[in-house]
Amino acid sequence: MNLLIVDDHPLVRTGIRAGLEGYFSESNIYEAGSVAEALDLLSSSTIDVAILDLRLGDGSGIEIADRIADLDLHTRCVIFTSVITPLAVIGAFNSGTVYAIVEKGVDIVPLGQAVQNAANGLSSLTAVAVKRAEEEITLSGGLGPIELTERERTIAELVAD
Predict the structure, then answer these.
(1) Average pLDDT per consecutive 10 residues, the chain (161 residues; last block may be shorter)
(2) Residue 122 to residues 1, 2, 75, 81, 114, Cα–Cα distance (Å)
């Protein structure tokens, strides 16, 4: 299996890689520190699962997931982020390529399981999760996701984080 880790913090990428190497010893693991680097790797390599940080210096993991869908690549994505927001859940689900959102923690096991599930075509993102996220946005007085442009969603997500 070919994996891609996308995170703009080299130390975080190194830690994720070390954990996943123990989990997926037979896999090739690539790294990217930006949206641009990730898109270059995705266009030149066959990646089975991409682990995407939500917030990157030049964009977001959701943008990468959307681009994967636009290019009709067969890469499945897992978002790995410090904070899971309702907008992230909605954006991930709408991309059609994100199979899980995992909150960063001290243990690699939840991420390893999410990557394995994604590789097997099993998604933990459901319409129920999106409905809950939409309700949370509405209850907090925020705008509904369909009222925001992609750029506005990105900005709102950064403000919420």
Answers:
(1) 96 93 90 96 94 92 94 94 85 90 87 94 83 79 61 80 74
(2) 16, 17, 13, 20, 9
